[in-house]
Amino acid sequence: MTPIDILKELRKDSPEIILFHSLAGKDSIVLLEMTSKIFDKVHCVFMHVIPNLEHMAKYKRFFKATYKNAIWYEVYHYVHYNYKKVGHLGCKKDLKGTEKPLSKIMKEARQTIGLEWVVLGSKQSDGLSRRLQLRTYEHEAIDRKNFKCYPLSKWKNKDCHAFIKHNRLIEPLNYGDHRQSASNDVIDPIFLHWCKTNYPQDYQKIKDVYPETEIILFRYENQTK
């Protein structure tokens, strides 16, 4: 079955779905295009580490203008809670904080939105453990027990890029060195360097929360030189 076939199969169970969306990632761009054509409403949940980054907001503004049946929610990424718990990279430590895994974030999103089915962009090509997991589901994509659907299960990155090009969709964000991120990897010096070079205001926002990222970037820039 194609991703469209899988989503149409899911449509029989629910006219609306929750889509965990990374804003600038290729899988999310593809899935929003597909789901918006099949479901009455698509409830997009974006997980961020640093809120209100301008280079991500550009994508959100585009999607809001393009997909009228998409509703947007923003929540903190699970790594945010991990970082705050230990005061990672000099951030303000939350002594009462606890880790919040993806499963809990997903549960909270379901309760807030009032829906069960969640669509995710994981693919078998992501790795061996993911491939073994996805192959156990119906059509290697639909996990009815946990109300999760992986329409791109059998696709590869090249298929997503081809779909984006064919449908003339917005291009995914490339931070350099062929890295595509959801702006969550604040320990990645290439991501930090890209922000500093292209969106210095975003880099400042990151540094305000995680001041020790400046050390990571300093080492990277001097090693590069």
Descriptive overview:
Helix 2 crosses helix 7 (157-166), helix 8 packs across helix 9 and helix 8 (189-198) crosses helix 10 (213-224). The protein has helices at residues 3-11, 26-38, 54-66, 78-86, 102-113, 128-134, 157-166, 189-198, 200-209, 213-224; strands spanning 16-20, 41-48, 70-76, 118-119, 142-143, 148-149. The protein has a six-stranded mixed beta sheet with strand order 3-2-1-4-6-5, with helices on both faces. Helix 2 (26-38) links the parallel strand 1 and strand 2. The protein is of the alpha/beta class and 225 residues long. It has one domain (3-172): Rossmann fold (3-Layer(aba) Sandwich). Helix content is 47%, strand content 12%. The chain contains ten helices and six strands. The radius of gyration is 18 Å and the shape is globular.
What is the strand arrangement across the widest sheet?
3-2-1-4-6-5
Fraction of residues in helix: 40-55%
Count of the separate structural domains? 1
Order of helices and strands: HEHEHEHHEHEEHHHH
Q: Regions with pLDDT < 50 over 5+ consecutive residues?
A: none
| Major β-sheet annotation | 6 strands, mixed
Known CATH architecture: 3-Layer(aba) Sandwich
Question: What characteristic shape results from the CA principal axes?
Answer: globular
Strand count? 6
Distance between the termini: 50 Å
Number of helices: 10
The CATH class is Alpha Beta
